[in-house]
Amino acid sequence: xxxxxxxxxxxxxxxxxxxxxxxxxxxxxxxxxxxxxxxxxxxxxxxxxxxxxxxxxxxxxxxxxxxxxxxxxxxxxxxxxxxxxxxxxxxxxxxxxxxxxxxxxxxxxxxxxxxxxxxxxxxxxxxxxxxxxxxxxxxxxxxxxxxxxxxxxxxxxxxxxxxxxxxxxxxxxxxxxxxxxxxxxxxxxxxxxxxxxxxxxxxxxxxxxxxxxxxxxxxxxxxxxxxxxxxxxxxxxxxxxxxxxxxxxxxxxxxxxxxxxxxxxxxxxxxxxxxxxxxxxxxxxxxxxxxxxxxxxxxxxxxxxxxxxxxxxxxxxxxxxxxxxxxxxxxxxxxxxxxxxxxxxxxxxx
Amino acid sequence: xxxxxxxxxxxxxxxxxxxxxxxxxxxxxxxxxxxxxxxxxxxxxxxxxxxxxxxxxxxxxxxxxxxxxxxxxxxxxxxxxxxxxxxxxxxxxxxxxxxxxxxxxxxxxxxxxxxxxxxxxxxxxxxxxxxxxxxxxxxxxxxxxxxxxxxxxxxxxxxxxxxxxxxxxxxxxxxxxxxxxxxxxxxxxxxxxxxxxxxxxxxxxxxxxxxxxxxxxxxxxxxxxxxxxxxxxxxxxxxxxxxxxxxxxxxxxxxxxxxxxxxxxxxxxxxxxxxxxxxxxxxxxxxxxxxxxxxxxxxxxxxxxxxx
Lengths: 350, 308
Known about the structure:
The complex is a heterodimer. In chain A, a hairpin with a 2-residue loop joins strand 9 (224-229) and strand 10. Chain A is an alpha/beta fold. Chain A has helices spanning 47-54, 81-87, 109-120, 125-138, 144-147, 157-169, 187-204, 215-221, 239-244, 249-256, 297-301, 331-344, and strands at residues 3-16, 19-32, 36-40, 62-71, 74-75, 92-95, 175-179, 207-212, 224-229, 232-238, 307-308, 314-315. Chain A contains twelve helices and twelve strands. Chain B is an alpha/beta fold. Helices cover 36% and strands 24% of the residues of chain B. Chain B has helices at residues 52-59, 85-93, 111-121, 128-141, 158-170, 188-205, 216-222, 240-245, 250-257, 264-269, 277-280, 300-307; strands at 9-18, 26-36, 41-45, 67-72, 75-76, 94-97, 176-180, 208-213, 225-230, 233-239, 286-291, 294-298. Chain B has an eight-stranded mixed sheet with strand order 6-7-8-3-9-10-12-11, with helices on both faces. Chain B is globular, with a radius of gyration of 20 Å. Chain B starts with 8 loop residues before the first strand and ends with a helix. The A-B interface holds A 42-43, 157, 186-191, 194-195, 213-220, 239-240, 243-244, 253-255, 257-261, 263, 268-273, 275, 339, 343, 349-350 and B 47-48, 157-160, 187-193, 195-196, 199, 214, 216-218, 220-221, 244, 254-255, 257-267, 270, 272, 275. Chain B: Residues 9-256 form the ABC transporter domain. Chain B: Pfam families: ABC_tran, oligo_HPY.
C-alpha cells in the first residue's frame, strides 16, 4: 500500500494573550492510498487542528515550529500560498462540520459545486455545470438539473451536507478530509451520509481522513483509527485492534463511558473523571495521568513513548512497559478482549 | 412504572401551532397525549423538527399552547396567566435544563447570581448569609468547588457549565425537571459524568425527569419509559427496554436501525431500515394501547390485531 500522506513530528502553537498554547505536541501518522483513517478525540484534543494544518487553514496566530507534512513525498509546509491554492479543493478537499455555514447563502448551489472545476481547470462553464449536475446526482440530490438553480436555504440539513460533499468530490480529490461531517445531523441522516461516503470511496478511490468524537460512527467507517488526547496521539491501530484490543487507558475510558443498547440498569455509567489539561502549560508527564486511575509514578514524571502491540498497533502508555505491573482493565474492555481472541482464531464474534 | 400512581404531569391532546392561518403554518406539536409518573424518567426522542423540544417548552409554558390541556399535579396549567400567584408556584415546581451550556448562562452574571436568581425571585432566602449558604450547598450538590461562586461562566468548561445550569434548576426545590438535550453539547468523556450526576440527584431529591434527546443509547440508559416523536406526533410509547427490544412502529424500527454501535463486527452486518413516510401515515390513526403499557400510533384494525 502506498503512503500518500505522511505527517512527521507535527507541532502547532497558537499565540494568545495568556501565552503560547501548544495545541499539537508532536503528531506522526500516515494515510495509505484508498483507506479511511478515523481520528477520534474530545473537543480541544487537536484533531481539527491536525487536519487543518494539512491544508494550512489555520488561524493567523498559529505557528508550526516543527514537523513535515509529506504529500507524495513533497512537504506541504514548504509550499507557497499559490502552490497550496492548486492543491486545496483539487487534490485534497475538505468537508466541514456545519452544512449551514459552509455554503454561500447568496449563490445557487450548482454554481458552488462547479466552482472548483472553473478555478482549477480550463473548462467551459457548460462543461463545469454538466459535471456539477452529475456529481449532485451521485450524492443523491433528486432532480439535480432543476435544483441547481436553488439556494442553500431551500434544502434540508442532510441535503446541504450532500451538497458540501458534492463540492468536495467534484474534482475527484485524492484525499478527502471530513471534519465531523455528520455531527450536526440526525441519526437516520447520519447513516445515509456515511453510506454515501463509503460508496463514493469505492467509486472514485479517494482516501479519507474522518474526524469524529462518535466511536459508533468510527466502527462503521474506519479501516484504521487514531485516538488523540491533549495534542498527541495516544493509540493507533486497525479498527479491530482499537475496538477489540485497546491498550491505552484513555481508549478504555472512551469505550467504557458509552452506554450501548445492551447496557443494563447498572447503577452508574463509568465516566472518566476530571477534564482535559490546559495546553498553555502542558504537564511534564503523561497528560492523561490526572484522570487515569491506572496512572503510575512515572506518568507524572515522563511522557510515555509508543510501545508496539503489533505491526499496525501502537499505544503510548507506560502500562505496556515490560516492567509495568499487570492491571485489570474495566469489565466491558475485557469482554472486547474476548471478542479479539475469537476474531484471531477466525471464529465469529457474535 | 407503577400504574396505580397518580401522574404528576398529564398532557392531553396538546397542540402547538405556529403562524396560525398563514401559508407557513407549522403544526409543531399535533395532538399529543401522555402521562408522566412521579419519580420516573420519561424519555422523549425524535429527529430535529419532530416537535420534542416544542413539547417540552409548551409543558413548561414557554409557549402558550394552541389547544389541549397540561395538568400538573391534577391542576390545569395550560391557561394560567403569567405573573398570577398560581403561575409563580408552578414556575418553582417545574424547572428546565437547557441544551447549550454556553448560551443558557448569562455571561455578565457571576455564577452565584445565576444560581440565586430563582431564590431571589421567589424570596426563598432571608438574608445574604442564608443566600450564600444555599449557593454553596447547591454547588456542592453538583460537585463544583463552592469557592468558585464569584467566577463568571466563561471561566468554566462545557461540562462544568452544565452543572451550573443544573444547580440553578435545583435552587428552587422543583419536583419536575425538563432536561432538553442536556448532554448533546458535551464530550463523550463528560457526558457520563453529567448523566450520573442527574441520576444521583434524582434519587436524593425524589425528582421526576423528562429527558429530551436524540442520542438513543443514552436515552435508553437513563429512561424508564420512552416516547418516540415524529412530525409532531407520538408514534410509539412504551417501557425503555420494550421499545428497544420490540419496536412496533416502522419509524421506531428505522430510527433504531440507524444507531451507530461502537463495535466493528456489528457495524459490518448492520442493515439500515428505510422509512417511507407516505406508506405509514393515513387518516383515522390514533395513539392506542396495543399491548399492556405499549402504545402505538395506528388505526383501529391494526390495534385489534395486536390485542388478539
